[in-house]
Amino acid sequence: MAAIPGLESPIIQYSRGDARTLSIELLLDTYTYNSKEDVHKQYISKLETFLSIDGEIHAPPPCKIVWGLLEFVGVLQDLRKRYVLFLDDGTPVRARVTLTWKEYVPVEIQIKTTPRSSPDRRRIHTLKEGDSLWFIAYRAYGESRYWKVLAEANNIDDPRRLEPGKQIIIPPLEKGSEMQGAG
What we know:
183 residues; alpha+beta; Membrane-bound Lytic Murein Transglycosylase D, Chain A
């Protein structure tokens, strides 16, 4: 998977990415309720297919995990198994399996749901009743501490007295400048 700047979840390319993970531990048992078949053949081999690379998408297939109210879409990243019960002939009939899934969100959905505003471009904001420089700075830069950047760029002496309808400039944050550390 490859991380794309500005998107919350990586696209499937299966190389890397910063995404949420979900781990589930299962107790798989053919001894108690089934016909005492090999637990690997019965269950684990089916789970292992989710680790195989799908030739069309060049990655393991995305899967949707639904458990009660939990819904998680991801790619199986790791499957760990520990056999805990065997028949006299050595056939494994009970195992603990831990599955770790890495979140998958299609690029199209991420692009639609991720805000495209950027603090590196100059913008204009029309003041509304109740606006504050602190909140505008938070929305524009992700941190309210940059309110002084807005005040200085717009020659605002009293940030508590903003005139509704007036347009103010939201300047880009300059890397390495004193504006970056405003607070």
